[in-house]
Design a protein that fits this description.
Elements: E1 2-6, H1 10-17, E2 24-26, H2 29-41, H3 48-58, E3 64-67, H4 73-91, E4 94-99, H5 113-123, E5 128-133, H6 136-144, E6 149-152, H7 154-164, E7 181-182, E8 185-186, H8 195-209, E9 214-217, H9 223-231, E10 236-239, H10 241-248, H11 251-262, H12 266-273
Parallel strand pairs: 1-2, 1-10, 2-3, 3-4, 4-5, 5-6, 6-9, 9-10
Antiparallel strand pairs: 7-8
Bound molecules: SN-glycerol-3-phosphate.
Length: 275
């Protein structure tokens, strides 16, 4: 499974890439807002174009998802093409992020705008990451429209199930992949018992249907969920930098480090210094 960093903060992206194991970057308008607010707090002015170029250069050789801000078909296609034209020459790694359905409410009637934009941009050879996926059906249609990546938001499914059942939780709390029960039985979101269950169902469908789009598990908030996303068959997990660090952290590793370091004898340390 590939690991992407889910951030628009250049310092975090650079830090994550210094590990040598990062396979891509995902951004969205909220992450861009956070990054810019952070810089402004530090008194730094930001040139958005140069800033995105720096992210693309840092991620050279791996895809960077940039989301559109328009929500009508024509606007998304024009903006997607123009972002691709503007930024892809920098490091040849731009992927355009399009919401699967851009309606805010059912009566907006924009159900097909996102999927049409995915189809048009993909057909024009522009890699598309189809985002805000909350059902396997949405994932199926995104793939059918040609999306290179489909992004199920696992954590937000868990949030919604927890909210419905009145569970008090914080964002990074583990939510069991197999779901939770109340007095009446298993809680679910239209047949999905957890965010990881959503990832698993999409991965199963893609495998059974011979679909080539990659399942990009997003909105993952802790290491155990990342393990479960891998077990569920996700091709990619996109993670905040702290969750990437958490993947490497374990108290027993720290204890082992302390005791091994305390046991280093000079003869052995000196040997290791020889060139
Ligand atoms: O990549 C999607 C992600 O940024 C949303 O994460 O934790 O806000 O649900 P979250």
């Amino acid at each position: 499974m590939k690991i992407f960093i889910d951030s628009a903060k250049l310092d975090e992206i650079e830090h994550a890439y210094s590990s040598g194991i990062i396979d891509g970057v995902t951004t969205n308008p909220s992450l861009i807002k956070k990054a810019v607010e952070d810089l402004k707090k530090k008194g730094q002015e930001i040139d958005m174009r140069q800033y995105i170029e720096s992210i693309l250069r840092t991620a050279k050789g791996t895809p960077v998802s940039i989301e559109v801000t328009e929500y009508n078909y024509q606007g998304m296609v024009e903006q997607g093409k123009s972002l691709f034209r503007m930024f892809n020459p920098i490091a040849n790694n731009v992927c355009i992020k399009i919401p699967v359905n851009t309606s805010f409410e059912a009566e907006h009637g924009r159900e097909f705008e996102g999927i049409r934009a995915v189809k048009t941009l993909s057909a024009a050879g522009i890699p598309v990451n189809c985002t805000l996926i909350f059902t396997p059906e949405q994932a199926l249609l995104a793939a059918k429209a040609g999306a290179s990546f489909v992004s199920p938001f696992a954590g937000r499914i868990d949030d919604s199930i927890r909210k419905e059942s009145g569970v008090i939780f914080s964002k990074s709390d583990y939510f069991p992949a197999e779901g939770i029960r109340n007095g009446k039985g298993m809680l679910d979101d239209n047949g999905i018992v957890s965010g990881i269950d959503l990832v698993r169902q999409i991965a199963d469908i893609f495998r059974k249907q011979g679909i080539k789009s990659e399942v990009l598990a997003a909105s993952l908030r802790n290491a155990r969920q990342v393990r479960e996303a891998a077990l569920a068959g996700a091709h990619i997990a996109t993670l905040p930098v702290d969750v990437i660090k958490e993947l490497l952290s374990n108290r027993k590793t720290q204890e082992g480090m302390k005791s091994f370091t305390a046991d280093i004898i000079p003869e052995y340390a000196d040997l290791a210094k020889e060139r």
